[in-house]
Amino acid sequence: KEVLEAKSEQYETVVRVAAGIAHEIRNPLTSIKGFLQLMLSNEKGENQYSGIIFSELARIETIVNEFMLLAKPESEKALVDTNVVEIVQYAVSLFRHQIKQQNVQVEKVIDSDIPNINSDPKRLNQVFINLVKNSLEAMEDGGELLVSAYYDKDEQSLVFKVQDSGKGIEKEQLERIGEPFFTTKEKGTGLGIMVTTKFVESLGGSLHYDSEVGKGTTATVTLPKYMR
Ligand code: ADP
Ligand code: MG
Question: Coiled-coil region(s) at which residues (predicted)?
Fold first, then answer.
């Protein structure tokens, strides 16, 4: 328990400091990008370095945005009547080009008796976008994405699974998943699951991972019908 408390304190500190820095970085970043674009359009146009500069700027932008999301206070949570199934469908649809490009087969098994819940659609959007994104990044050479959803009457909870047939996660890595900056990707930020976990928990739910190396990964999001 003490370890857990120390961990959560450590987490809070990381988030607070980083969010402050992220906020300060955002404005100069936007201005650098804008002026760079102007410079390139006024002068000789693109050169061999501009692509690199833009992709590195995009990377900083991703990190900054993820930290800003993380630092969103509880008070910004906006609870409304929410159709989570629609949100899941939307998240998948956002990636249709990548899905096609990577030759990923998508299957959906979604029960028809899933109730709407009082929740925050913006946070849930981010949650499912992060999960689908991770699944696709684990299936660069194609595979299958299975999105399923059902209502557990006994538990009065909604269960959503994002399952992929991707590379999977090693046991030692599975324990570290969601730790700030833990990534195995060259261009990863290691912040996605941290944001996802925080958002799901702020909505009274939980996030669970099952994975087998070489077989694939299942992320399970459980949301209560009634938030306690
Ligand atoms: P990032 O995607 O930037 O690396 P995340 O927090 O989203 O950060 O994920 C952390 C790590 O968890 C990833 O680098 C990857 O190793 C692992 N991971 C997450 N989801 C999956 C998945 N569906 N399949 C395989 N590995 C995954
Ligand atoms: Mg990610």
Answer: none
